[in-house]
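> @MW can you paste both from yesterday?
MW: sure, first one:
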Amino acid sequence: MTSGQDHTMLTRFILLGLTDQADQKHLFGVFLLIYAVTPVGNLGMIDLIRTSSALHTPMYFLLSVLSFLDICNSSVFTPRLLTSFLTVDQSISFAGSVVQMAFMILHGTGECLLLAIMAYGQFVAICYPVLYHTIMSKCLCIQLVVGTYAVGVSISAVQTGNAFILPYWGPNIIDHFFCDIPPPPPPVLQLACSDTTLANVILLFFSALVTVPTVSAISVSYTYILITICRMRSLEAQSKAFSTCASHLTALSLFYGSVFFVYVQPNPESASAYNKALSVFYTIVIPMLNPPVYSLGIKVSRPLYKLGFLT
């Protein structure tokens, strides 16, 4: 029996991409356009919030941070994907895989936490408008953003280390366009040359540690928001309160909807294509869609000041 010391650790993985090499070339223009629009839209959102005094509120400060996260998240995946469309070499170095996964988890965790914080902000604005600036102070918002990144870095370090501390001697082919680890089944962990039971348990635990509290906070916040809106006597106030929540609810539905369906596997024959399509949506398409979605909320934000919201 050959000892582990006789094995050579892998130095590269092969990413098969979205489709076969011939079809991928036709997708280059589509994804190049998406990647061009994403930073333009999100940087435009950040600049609009920075230059418009009416948008200097805690909610839009958090939105500008979300826009920054979206730019970073898209940049983790799209340039590598665009390169793969035009080259024969589909490999990625072991170190590159570690970096890609680390940033993916960092930005994914950050987005989950930030969406939950924004839901809490909506709750305070609708349910306690008079205390909004007292509760959601600038200092608290900065602390929440710093805390979001701290938690993201910690979760990323644990999850990435959990995946790549395992031995990888071969095979090295990943049927995906990036080094993903969401279950089931994690494509990277499937290549490990040892028992991955503990690694999968750790993966599930830390995934739940992020998603369960954030989804719970979002659900509780919007439950109270709905109750408060239903108690409003003015139809105009109800309409504008619903309008200011609509953009955030749309973004929540897009993000958590696509992440949720990753866990709802179809038949094994189509599981790979299914996961790739969903991964494209929540890693590349959603960062492009967030600016137009939230711009709808900006249009109704100013009338809300007159109604006592966000003031």
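MW: second:
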Amino acid sequence: MAQESPRNSAAEIPVTSNGQLEDSHEHSFNRDLKRSLPVGLGLSETKITSHGFDSTKEGVVEAGPFPGSSASPKSSVISPSSAAASRLAGQGGRAQQKSGPVVLADEVKNPAMEKLELVRKWSLNTYKCTRQIISEKLGRGSRTVDLELEAQIDILRDNKKKYENILRLAQTLSTQLFQMVHTQRQLGDAFADLSLKSLELHEEFGYNADTQKLLAKNGETLLGAINFFIASVTTLVNKTIEDTLLTVKQYESARIEYDAYRTDLEELNLGPRDANTLPKIEQSQQLFQVHKEKYDKMRNDVSIKLKFLEENKVKVLHNQLVLFHNAIAAYFAGNQKQLEQTLKQFHIKLKTPGADAPSWLEEQ
């Protein structure tokens, strides 16, 4: 008894890894605790609170009353506090959350996957169209042909080349006429200067000066009519016809896609029908239907544009050809009044050579 001290008894309290006392040493702990306390100390219970190094684990050790007291004996119980229980529950929940599978919501989409899917569809469509084009050029594949529409497109392309040739020639004529008018104006000025300095040839130089100036004036009028003709035909060829040909290119691309998916569907229908091929056939049928509707729409658009283009072309070319004919005929016939009347008929305004630019008041 003399060898056992309170310090040694307290130092020998066994504790498990989770902070709880072992059950086998419970009675020895109570015995050592009674010996260490003075006799007559009327304590019914003793609380011992242990704190870990990280202050995350807490516990209360409750000891019952000593023998001889009025209270009933109680066994030692270690119960975690509410704060420790809540922290342990949170740590357990986090552990379960980390160890469990991660499920992404369906509405959350990855932009990289969407781009990859678009690239995949584009690559597949390009492959099918390229295969269809090569098959057609090698004479192995079949193509859908609208004979009436194809004939109208061929005529349009041929007419476009001819109109472009007319434009080149008209521009050459305009350039040459401009140079001639410029030369006639300079020649008229030279004759007028000599008429003032040569008294003996005053009348002769004066007649020639007036003639060259009149020719230059008529040439400028004809030049205005030709330039107006060039501008109108250029608009027809480079805008109206080009817009129609752009729709034709879209129609031809839709036709190639339609034939490519049609060929793909025909190949699948010729093969076996089982559980693996039926979904592919159904998907191919849906894609074929989509491209068929696109092809029909583009064919209808081309037909409508070709019809309106023909009406517009006839109207524009009729007016411009009449203008060109009347202006050329009046110029070479020397009919100045008829040439001026032609320009007034088509509302053509000529710019006076050497005239200053209009002021801002005139522009308003």
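> thanks! The radius of gyration is 52 Å.
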